[in-house]
Amino acid sequence: MLSLLWLIPTLPLAGFLVLALGGKYLGHRSIAVIGTSSTALSALIAILIGMDFIAAPPPGFVFRQEAWSWIAVAGFSPGIGFYLDALSLVMVLVVTLISFLIHLYSTEFMSGDEDYARFFAYMNLFVGSMCILILADNLLFLYLGWEGVGLCSYLLIGFWYRDPANGRAARKAFIVTRIGDTAMAIGLFLLFTHLGTLDIQPLMQCAGQQWPEGEGLAILTAALLLAGAAGKSAQLPLQTWLPDAMAGPTPVSALMHAATMVTAGVYLIARTHVLFTLAPVVQHAVAVIGALTLLLAGFSALVQTDIKRVLAYSTISQIGYMFLALGVGAWSAAIFHLVTHAFFKALLFLSAGVVIMSLHEEHNIFRMGALRKKLPIVFWTFLIGSASLAALPLVTAGFYSKDLILWRAWSSAGGNPWLWAAGWGGAILTGLYIFRVVFLVFFGEARTAMPPGTARPGLRITLPLIVLAAFSLVGGWIETPPFLGNLTLFSSFVQHALPPAQAVHGEKNDETILELLAIAASLGGIALAYLLFLRYPAFLQGMMLIPAFARIREFWQSGWGFDRFYEFLFVRPYLWLAHADRRDVIDNIYKMALSCMLRWLQKVDPHDVINTIYNGLAGLCLFLHRALSATQSGQVRRYAAAIATGSIGILFIGIFA
Amino acid sequence: MRTVEAIAAIPMHHGLVLAAILFALGMIGILARRNLVFILMSIEIMLNAAGLAFVVAGARWEQADGQVMLIFILAVAAAEVSVGLALLLLLYRRFQTLDADAVSKMRG
Amino acid sequence: MILSALIFILVAGGMLAWMANRWYPGSAKWVALATVGIELVLTIWLWLQFASAMALPAHGGWFAETRAEWIPRFGVSFHLAMDETSLILVMLTAFLGMVSVACSWTEIQERAGFFYFNLLWTLAGAIGVFLALDLFLFFFFWELMLVPMYFLIAIWGHENRRYASIKFFIFAEGSGLFMLVAILALVFVHYRSTGVLTFDYFELLNTAMSPSTGLWIMLGFFIAFAVKTPIVPLHVWLPDAHTEAPTAGSVILAGVLLKTGAYGLLRFVVPLFPDAALQFAPVAIALGATGVLYGAFLAFAQTDLKRLVAYTSVSHLGFVVLGIFAWNPWSLGGAVMQMIAHGISTGALFVIAGILQDRTHTRDMRRFEGLWSVMPRLAAMGLFFAIATLGLPGMGNFVGEFLILMGLYRVNSVLASVAAVAFVASVVYALALVQKTFHGENKHDWQLPDLSGREMATLYSMAAITLWLGLYPQPVLDAAPDIASRPPAIAVADREGNAE
Prior knowledge:
Shape of chain B: elongated
Largest sheet of chain A: 2 strands, antiparallel
Helix content of chain A: over 70%
Largest interface: A-C, 58 and 64 residues
Largest sheet of chain B: none
Order of helices and strands of chain A: HHEEHHHHHHHHHHHHHHHHHHHHHHHHHH
Oligomer: heterotrimer
Structural class of chain B: mainly alpha
Helix content of chain B: over 70%
Radius of gyration of chain B: 18 Å
């Protein structure tokens, strides 16, 4: 069974090829079948492989498969090879499963679109690239998947290419992530130059053996990889692209910009955790970045009016949690949150997509309302997703993963109360902002009449919602805190690939107290949302009349001014310089050189003597030109005479001189 | 043997002067005549003058090279005449005249 | 024998095409197609032959050699030889020859015979350059390649063709002069030290000379090749020439002629003057890095589609210069890869620009916009090659750029990191191209036919090659000059050196 591993990325890529080349000649039905079945098959294979892997683990909990040697130059020999261990198995299961569900959803959601084939082609390409990213056994091949998903992100954000705004968002996403990718590429150069390989496992061993903890090169490499991860995962300071990425179709936002692609950074750091362990400074920076990002994005999510932007900032914030976990060395907690987040965030986006669709492209939550009755299934699924995101205790998956992170942020070797406090504050914010959306959209009074005759979402939309909702509820029961059964199925499985986190601060009792605090935070956030947005909405409206609050609101809404800052610092100067230098300064230098020299001569010599000389030279040239051209009479006899005279003259000289 | 001696008896400068006179005649012909046919003929004369000079020189040093060169010149002359006559025909068709001065399109 | 045949087939084909078009107007393109077709088949056959012969180490890297006396008094011989690097470049030339004939198929109507004559002679000159191992012969082919190219631009070019062609010619000839002087100087230095007057590459390889002499002579070669490659302050002829040339001319210019400059650096500058090149390498690398960034930056600023693509060439060839002067197995493999991949991807972009110009009679990107909905196939190909140009992994350019920078990192980590910024800059210009041309609303109401079968065959084959280069680059990487490879264990020493 394991030997089918290569099929997981290959099937979606094959689907992409068929749709890209033959999409024109296929009907809607066959496009949907091809697009969905390719991901369905790879999900199926992933599940079978997963069962096989657990039932009969390969030696060392690692399975390796090499298709062919990609590049081989003087000891540099990355292959097109796949590597399966506990970590990549978890990731690939999540990715293929969610991809399949979202493809299924899209077959109905996108059915009215003229570019149906192109959509599924891009989506399949994405799934293939993402699986490559996860399963690659060397960093260069991982980089291929990494860039591949970046490309798909660009293509799908700008999917509706007619609107230039979409194109702008798409380019922004690609360029900003590419900045991180470039840093990562430099990191790869460094790794190969100093360790002589890019194969992940030998590389990690080699790094562990050659570099002591705190080694400068390790710090540099880890920082470069961190930049790559921050770009892809939309963390500070490269987070600005993700909210704009919501310009793409909603299934795209669900699949790439929530569930899978943006968590690639988390995966990368977990995959190369040895480097980060060797560079404690950088690892601490990961935690700090995560903590800052989760707070900043949480505040921004609080004031957005576009439902998808709320979810986008929420995604940034939740990935901040994962970074926080990575930064304190709680590798498996980060991956656990990644998994649960994938389920509930995909669910939220897909539900939001239905809401937007049934209100005819209405994105503003203040123009929605009272959809509870009209879209009952969506209401429940969105509610489950929100509850899971807000970490509603006991019943939701998000609760178990987030609390694990909070506990680790306190107790791990790299953890400290400040990080914990950031995460705790973030938990309040999370409950607040997501239930703000729930109350505004599904409760209260209807602010936009749902157009009559809007079809209820069909089975292909509701089925994925229900499945994801189920996962969002029960997905957490594979890893529970000590006082709730102390199940460690997940972390003990992932331990085969990632070292376990050790609690160094805090006693057993602390954990319970902290759990209770965390529960209080999430419930408090939800309660606050209820009070502010459903019970006493007038209070906030009154607050907004105060200019200072309005200004803060605007500031948060614009994502803390990062966009404006970057625009001012990088974009404008680049554009200005480019425009100024459009004609190529160097070319102009050549062109100007001669005339400048003449002008300079004139300046040096005001009496124009030299100019006269030049004029005289020019006149002389003209005179000579005329004189010489007069000799070209065109009469052959004259030429002959000239030849004769010349020869005689030469002979004369030769003889008598 | 007698012919060799007879030739050797002729002083070299006689032959050379004859060649020079022929050459000058040819050149004057080229410069003075306007008819292209005559110009071609003059060129032939000049070529033959050069050939004669070669023969004379060959005789002087008792080498066969001079005669080889003469044959070479004859071949060149034949080629030159064929090309020249072809050009001449084309010119006549185009300009309806054989006046060399009329063909002055290349004026600078 | 086969090597001379490679050149003479093109020479003869060119003349035949010219004459054939007089007798049967319109037949020139068929003759030209047949000629480059034979050429391509021949090179592929050679490649297959030599791929199997590779196993024999006795070759010493040279597969085939032709040597005949030419001007023995001056030690000039007709000496051609082929190793893997030249073979792969000859293949590229033959393939792009095919492409350029295909893309001129309907574009060139006036004086078609002379056009294909010039085209084929340029190709013949380029192949000669790639094969010649006698410096005099090399110079001869170098010039042979330029003059027909001048005509291609001057006669069949666009609006500003006179200016562009004269500029091209002046730069090319001016730099050629430097090379001629350098060649003669090298030959005389060799003559003085050994008493043998020869232009032969192998004999000149180990000429003893004082460091300063070496540096000066090397600079002569370097300037000639730097103009052709181009390296930054000497690149100014390129945008004009590429923009004004007819499509086939742009394809050949970008795909083949620029490679002759890089090939010269690879074959002559470094091997003939190893010490001087080593001494000069930091300057060359700095110039290369400048070119990489400056080209990418200016490409973004352009509004003329062909000019944009032309500046991307400056950027990509900057990478090649970096790779050559870093001179280690990785960077050289990358440099050769980059040459081939750039030839294909940029050639394809010029073909696309040519198709657009043919149909819309403009190259101004401000007048395009929204062509995706009008010509989806062309737009998809445009997107594909824009992505290839920005160096997405899985396509040839990435392998080249990555290996070059990785090799360079070992030599000069700072400049490697600086040059890596081009990864971002290239995204900026490539996406600007896609956005301005294909995305957006079709505001200008273009109604244009999509790709024809001939155009599709051309572009699809180029796309397939680009992917092949990206996913299985080994044949091209093996073609890089085989220098004594430093084992990766050197990393330890490097690290200790850096740790200070």
